[in-house]
Amino acid sequence: MKRELIIYQIIIMIFAISCRKSEESTIDKYSLKANDIIFQTIEETECSCIGNIPTENMVEISDAENPKYDIKTILKKQLSVKSDSELDSLINLSRNFKLNIQKLNKYKIKIISENDLLKFGDTSVTKYERFIKKCPKGIIFIKKPIFDKNYEKAVFDYSSGFSCVKILPSPIYKLENGKWKQIKK
Predict the structure, then answer these.
(1) Strand spans (E) along the chain
(2) pLDDT in tens, 150-174
(3) CB count in 10 Å sphere of residue 181
(4) Cα 85 to the chain's mean position, in Å?
(5) Which residues, listed in sequence order, are joined to residue 155 by a DSSP beta bridge?
(6) Rounded to two decimals, what is the model's pTM?
(7) Rounded to an integer, what distance in angstroms lies between the CA atom of residue 129 and that of residue 37?
(8) 24: domain range?
């Protein structure tokens, strides 16, 4: 009886450890793929600065900016997702996203905080010149991407500079030969 209890406890521990590793690898895979598409975009836009990436996901941001816009229905269509719960699980992968700071440093890309942006908002020449010196090639603002379950398609929203121009719905990307390509609409 005692021996059976020990064996049972060992099986439970192995199961618990394997579940945790599986969950961690899914989160790690999200960060890896998200960093891939983010850095590819930074390279293509040649920006020298990146705005702080919001902790909120794309749906939360969209709901706060425009509650009447039904982003979930559009995302389900773009990612070929059938249910809200499936979409929610894909969105939730972004919660533990880790931006690759070492790669930012390697490419000499500076992170611009909200406080920095407020300082740049003054139209005086000295503050504008400071911004140009700090970000001579511009700034990119990024929202965390949402991937399909196979990480072959992504909805990825970003903008450059201080533009108010917004493309709705957000562009869709497809992974082809290790590169993210925007799907033309």
Answers:
(1) 49-51, 110-112, 139-142, 146-147, 153-155, 158-160, 172-176, 179-182
(2) 999 999 998 876 443 345 567 788 8
(3) 12
(4) 19
(5) 146, 172
(6) 0.72
(7) 30
(8) 2-182
What pLDDT is recorded for position 112? 86
CA distances from 6 to 1, 19, 131 (A): 9, 20, 64
Q: Give residues with Cβ within 8 angstroms of 92, minimum separation 6.
A: 57
Domains identified in the chain, total number: 1
pLDDT digits (tens, 9 = 90+) for 66-100: 999 999 999 999 999 999 999 999 999 999 999 99
Region 109-117: mean pLDDT is 81
At residue 140, what are phi and psi to the nearest 5 degrees? -115, 135
Spatial contact of 155 and 75, defined as CB atoms under 8 Å apart: yes
Task: For residue 50, list its beta bridge partners.
Answer: 111, 140
